[in-house]
Give the backbone structure.
Amino acid sequence: MNDQPSAPLRARVTGPVAAVLLVLAGVLIALAWTGVLQGGDTETAVGLAADRIPGVTVVALVVTELGNTVGSTAVALVGGAVLAVRGRVAEGLCLAAVPLVASVVFTMVKRILDRARPPADLQVMAVANESLPSGHATMVAAAWTTLVLVLWPVLRSRGRVLLTAFAVLWAGAVGFTRVYLGVHWLSDVLAGWASGAALAFTGVTVLSLVLDRRTRRRDTAPA
């Protein structure tokens, strides 16, 4: 990684993506809550429950614990601290803040919508609180998408590919376990992924605008 100062991703790039993802997240949440997707949700949940394999279930339990909301928050806070120590304070604050904001957002949405979890007979581990959106999926998408975006300008091409691939695979694995273990509907996870990624792109867009304004002020300041 190059620690020399570099410009963040431009808001004109991240802003439109954030807007699209916010709309997508809203649509998915609305469709899930109104029951439009319930047929597919039920079919997926029942099918996965019928095809569970003991060894895979053990792995899924480990992955779902490692990828819980605390784990994703820890990744963001540690990554943010490292960036701050290396002189990238704004990027570090962004990385730390996005998952914290995401946790507040998904908790509020859950309580407002109060969607029920899959029935207990489909669950490997008993979970009874609100279901939509998946907190695991929201947080893992928020933390890892933000990490990719803030590090993108300072990584070489190989580093970008490796980090992005790991982030996508890890977020996908964590989300899959929630459906596989019967504690979330598929639409909960899809909505969580979209919400987390949307908040990440929104946060990096704000970061870019702040740093751009800071740069303009410095450039126009009298000598």
Summary: The two ends are 33 Å apart (CA to CA).
